[in-house]
Design brief:
Elements (H helix, E strand, L loop, with lengths): L17 E8 L9 H14 L12 E8 L4 H13 L5 E4 L3 H14 L3 E3 L13 E3 L4 H16 L6 E5 L6 H10 L4 E3 L11 H4 E2 L2 E2 L3 E5 L2 H10 L5 E4 L7 H9 L7 E4 L7 H4 L2 H4 L5 H20 L5 H8 L3 E2 L7 E2 L11 E7 L5 E9 L3
Parallel strand pairs: 1-2, 1-3, 3-4, 4-5, 6-7, 6-10, 10-11, 11-12
Antiparallel strand pairs: 8-9, 12-15, 13-14, 15-16
C-alpha cells in the first residue's frame, strides 16, 4: 500500500519523523539462534548508535519490524509480504538463508521494494534492480576460499570435498568452487537429510577420506555431520550463519569443529571493540547483535546518500551508485550493472578454549 508523492515516488513507511524497515531471518529451522538477540539487536544501533543516543536520518528515526521466516522460502515470502503490506516497511532485509532471501527478494522486486541481504546466491537475484548484496556472494567467495585452502593447507590438503545442499540456488557457488579447485569431490545432500548421513563419506572410521571439507549447508546439518565424522577433517567455508558463536559452542561440545575457518561479513564478536567500541558501550552482547549493528551502519550510510526526500525509487537509484565504508562490513562499491559490490571478507577461526567461539584470524581480506 504505497503512498505516492507528486513526482510519483513511493514513500511507504516514511513519515516526517520515522522510517520503517523489515528484517526476516531463520530464527527457527536452520541454526541455533537466540530470539532475544534479534529482539534487542534489531534496534540497538538505531537507539544507541549515535554515541549512546538515537540515530536520526534527516530528522527521522528508524523503526524495525522482524519476522521469523522458519527457514522456508514460501513462509519467507509470506512474512515479507506481511511486513511490506501490513506493517508498511519501506525496505526489506534478509538476515540469512539463501532460498528464503531469493524468494523474498523476488517478491520485493515485484512491488518495487528495496531489498538487501548478506551475499548468498546470484541466481535469480543478479538481474533484480531492487536487490543489493551487503557482502560477497557465495560464487564470489568460492575462488577466494579455494586460494586460501591451497595457500594454508597444501600439500597435505590434496583431498578436498564440498558438501552443498541440493538446491539450485547453490549451483553457482558449486560451479565456482569446482572451477577454482579442480578435482574437488562434490556431494549434494537433500535439504531434509540429516548431517550424520554424510559422515561415512567423509571418514572410514577415524581415517580421513578427505583432508578439507567445505560445507555449504544449514548449520544444523554441519553440526550433525561434524559430530558424526570421527576423523575430524579440516572444515572451511563461506557465508554468515556458519560463523556464529552458537554454532562454534555446539561444535566444541564434541571438539569436532576446533580450528574450523569460515568467511564472514563481519569480524568476530570477540574482537568487536577493535572495530567499533561503541557497540559494547551501547549494550551489544553477542554476535547476532554485532552483525545487526554492522548491517544497520551500512543502511545508515545508504539512507544518507538517498537524501531527505526519501522514496523507494530514489533509494534504489542512489544505492545503485553508492560506495560505503563502515569499518565492520566489507567496503562496497555498487554500480548500475553490479549490485554485488563488496570488496573483502573476514576470516574467522573456531576456538574451543573457554567454551567455544570465533576469533578474527584476518580482517578485510581482498585476496589470498
Amino acid at each position: 500500500v504505497g503512498t505516492a508523492t507528486a513526482g510519483g515516488g513511493d514513500r511507504t513507511g516514511v513519515t516526517a519523523n520515522s522510517i520503517t524497515i523489515g528484517i526476516h531471518a531463520p530464527l527457527t529451522g536452520a541454526a541455533p539462534l537466540a530470539q532475544t538477540s534479534f529482539v534487542k539487536g534489531k534496534d540497538l544501533y538505531w537507539n544507541r548508535g549515535n554515541g549512546g543516543k538515537p540515530v536520526e536520518i534527516f530528522g527521522r528515526r528508524v523503526q524495525v519490524v522482524f519476522q521469523d521466516d522458519q527457514y522456508n522460502p514460501s513462509h519467507a515470502r509470506l512474512v515479507c509480504q506481511q511486513m511490506a503490506e501490513q506493517e508498511n516497511a519501506f525496505l526489506l532485509v534478509g538476515g540469512g538463508g539463501t532460498d528464503q532471501i531469493q524468494a523474498c527478494a523476488q517478491y520485493a522486486a515485484s512491488q518495487g521494494i528495496p531489498y538487501l541481504s548478506a551475499g548468498v546466491t546470484e541466481i535469480g537475484l543478479s538481474q533484480l534492480a531492487n536487490y543489493f548484496a551487503l557482502s560477497k556472494s557465495y560464487a564470489q567467495q568460492a575462488p577466494m576460499l579455494a586460494s586460501y585452502v591451497k595457500q594454508k593447507f597444501r600439500p597435505r590438503a590434496s583431498r578436498v570435498a564440498m558438501v552443498a545442499t541440493n538446491t539450485a540456488n547453490f549451483d553457482d557457488a558449486v560451479q565456482a568452487f569446482q572451477q577454482a579447485y579442480p578435482g574437488v569431490a562434490v556431494f549434494r545432500p537433500e535439504k531434509n537429510e540429516r548431517g550424520s548421513s554424510m559422515a561415512g563419506r567423509l571418514c572410514t572410521g577415524t581415517v580421513k577420506n578427505f583432508d578439507v571439507v567445505f560445507p555449504l549447508v544449514a548449520p544444523t546439518y554441519y553440526l550433525e555431520m561434524a559430530g558424526a565424522a570421527k576423523c575430524n577433517p579440516q572444515y572451511v567455508g563461506v557465508g554468515i550463519t556458519m560463523g556464529l558463536d552458537s554454532v562454534a559452542r555446539l561444535g566444541c561440545d564434541s571438539r569436532s569443529t576446533e580450528g574450523a575457518r569460515f568467511f564472514s561479513p563481519a569480524p568476530a564478536f570477540a574482537d568487536s571493540n577493535r572495530f567499533d567500541g561503541g557497540f559494547r558501550r551501547a549494550g551489544g552482547s553477542d554476535d547476532i547483535m554485532w552483525l545487526l549493528w554492522g548491517l544497520s551502519k551500512t543502511l545508515h550510510q545508504l539512507f544518507l546518500k538517498a537524501g531527505p526526500n526519501l522514496t523507494r525509487e530514489g533509494f534504489i537509484a542512489s544505492t545503485s551508485r553508492a560506495s560505503v565504508r563502515t569499518g565492520i562490513y566489507p567496503d562496497i562499491q555498487y554500480s548500475r550493472s553490479n549490485h554485488f559490490g563488496a570488496k573483502q571478507v573476514h576470516l574467522l577461526r573456531n576456538v574451543c578454549q573457554g567454551g567455544g567461539r570465533y576469533v578474527t584470524e584476518r580482517a578485510f581480506v581482498s585476496r589470498f
